[in-house]
Design a protein that fits this description.
The chain is of the alpha+beta class. The protein has five helices and five strands. The protein has two domains: 9-84, no CATH class; 88-180, no CATH class. Strand 1 (119-122) and strand 2 (129-132) form a beta hairpin.
Length: 186
């Protein structure tokens, strides 16, 4: 096959290499070999450390507990893979759909005074319960927002979040002045 008719990244790299001075080409080749070897060594060290930790966990936990640990880690891996398939942004789409089709852009302030509806979520930043309600939304570590103007769909979306699969709802649209008490922003 005539090399003048070849195309693609390999042919392009070959043409660039042919026009490059041999000293530069040798330095680049040497750097690539060293980088590849370094990546191989670091990857091997990581795999050996993982093996060592698995053996250590197996001996420390015993067969039954290590089986439970392995089962949980396997399902966590499945959840992480599913998260990489686009489910990590699915909650954003769900909130928009909830807003349009289910809650008709209602906010927490549109809820009745009695009975008090409280929508629970987990604050991923502080690791404690986050409560959405008409009079306030808060957790005891971050602080409180009185009379929140949050849409009901956002509260329901935050409540249905599961971080490996459905990404958490961000609270970046809140005004810093709305917070009372301690805040992780400061």
């Amino acid at each position: 096959m005539d090399s003048s008719l070849s195309f693609g990244p390999r042919a392009l790299l070959q043409k660039v290499a042919e026009r490059m001075p041999s000293a530069l080409r040798d330095r680049i080749t040497s750097a690539l070999l060293v980088g590849s070897f370094t990546a191989l060594v670091l990857s091997s060290i990581g795999q050996l450390l993982t093996l060592g930790l698995q053996v250590l966990f197996g001996r420390a936990l015993g067969t039954h507990e290590y089986g439970i640990y392995s089962y949980a880690m396997a399902w966590l891996g499945v959840g992480l893979i599913l998260g990489k398939l686009g489910f990590d942004t699915a909650l954003v789409r769900f909130v928009a759909s909830y807003n349009t089709h289910l809650f008709n852009h209602a906010s927490l302030q549109d809820l009745p005074d009695a009975p008090r509806f409280v929508i629970n979520a987990t604050n991923v930043q502080s690791g404690v319960l986050w409560r959405f309600s008409k009079p306030y939304m808060w957790d005891w570590r971050v602080g409180k927002v009185a009379d929140p103007k949050i849409e009901l769909a956002v509260a329901v979306g935050a409540s249905s979040a599961f971080p490996p699969v459905l990404s958490p709802v961000r609270r970046s649209h809140l005004r810093p002045g709305a917070w009372t008490g301690y805040s992780l922003q400061h």
